[in-house]
Amino acid sequence: MRRRAFLGGTAAALTFALAPHSLRAAPARFDIATLRKGWQGRLRAIAAKGTLPIIDIESCYNPGKINLAEFAGRMDEAGVAQVCMSPQIGKGGFDSGKLWNDGARDAVAAFPSHFIPASTAGIWPAWSEKPKEFLDIHLRRVVEDGYPLLGEFEFRHYPSPPEWQRGEMFRDIAIPIDGEHGHRLFAFSAETGLSFQIHYEIEDGLLAPLEKMLAAYPRAKVIWCHLAQVRYQGRSTVYGPAYLRKLLETHPGLYVDTAFGGPKSVYPGSRENHARVWESDGRVRPDWAALIEDHPWRFLAALDLGGDRMDEIGDKVKTLRRFLAGLKSEAAGTVACRSAWKLLFDEQIAL
Length: 351
Ligand SMILES: [Zn+2]
Fold this sequence. Notes:
binds zinc ion, 6-stranded mixed sheet, 11 strands, TIM Barrel, single chain, 14 helices, 47% helix
């Protein structure tokens, strides 16, 4: 008796000692069912005004720098219904030991009908320097917190034009997509049904490993960011509308987002016009339009905003709407927002 009482007392004391800590450590799960009503209402309100609403599937931001109210106002002006917001961890955060950022929670709390939470961006340095540890916390928190979408993981990434201009060559990232970390991510997506985004430069030598992974994980949902954004044409002789058509028709879990520059956008590394969907006169190339019109549910509108370019939302939306205007209106409506809704919530939304 005395022994049982002693043990019981110890257990009670332990519970008491641990409870406040564990309560603080466990964040509330996103209430996706309630949030969805707000997201749907905002989509419908924008459509009711005669504007094609946009869901941006791929943007990240610096939670310490953004003015959320100002940014939400710009979204209102541009007819952007939702931005899938993925927080970035910069060098300072990484140096202080951070591998996860909860910032999307603040954005969603402040403007619940504007933002869809996406998990921490897989970028330099947190992902590229410590990929295993990054995934350890990332995959756990995505499940615990109920994120509907994972952020963008840079497997092969050349410095973006602004990074190139700033001489940030450390943003040149190469992590094999068919290596240990790629397998872990694809397997996670296949098991959970959650989609994730990849930044994966379009080059001949990179296509076979991606095809291998898509074949190995047919249930994984992969968003290949930046349709037809080829930084160096000399390194890409295979990719084009015919190649991507075959890839999409072979692998039902593959999606592509439409974040790319305008017709005159030049990649400083090669000095080439890297957004290859455009004709030289600025129209959408008919072969790309035909592919998208045949498979509109596989293409997702995206703005690719980042911490260093949040103020470009107006220009980015103009480029996106110019591109959408080059598609038949039914396909444009699907790519603008309906395909993202279907991918995220497995539901066809009526606007
Ligand atoms: Zn990217």
